[in-house]
Amino acid sequence: MKSVFAKPEFKDELWQEYLSEESLYYTIAKKEDNAIIGYCGVKNLDRRIWEIAIEIKSDCCHKGYGYRALKMYLETVTGISKRHEFASRVDTDNIVSQNLMEKLGFQPYGLSEFLLHKEEDQLAAEEEYKDKLDDRYMALAKKFNVEPRKLLSHVLEYRIIV
Fold this sequence. Notes:
Helix content: 25-40%
Number of helices: 6
Strand content: 15-25%
CATH architecture: 3-Layer(aba) Sandwich
Radius of gyration: 16 Å
CATH class: Alpha Beta
CATH superfamily: Gcn5-related N-acetyltransferase (GNAT)
Order of helices and strands: HHEEEHEHEHHE
Strand order of the largest sheet: 1-2-3-4-6-5
Number of strands: 6
């Protein structure tokens, strides 16, 4: 799914979502120099269960920023909104974010459609990428209690109750 983020129109759409009145995003900055390194937030406050999103610059990954930012965000937003259940969708290739969700206490919940909404597109992706189904994918499918091929056309959904 990373190739989608390279498209200017997708970035423009993402930026419009970030500025929307239906969203609640926080900028993540380094404490020592206040350099902006990412964001975390909720895209659509009208949803029954708010979906948490996070993006960190690649050169700042693996340094604890994402964990500290999301932990603080969840505590703050829960205190203000009195909401306690949150979801997060993670790409099946994004092992770092999967580990982050689990470290924060999110639990595997199932699969979710992301970019492929038509069944024929999902089946085509599953066929095209079927060679990716290695032991890690098999373990992930077992963890989420889904058919392994579905991991190739969907994203993982995690849930947490704070």
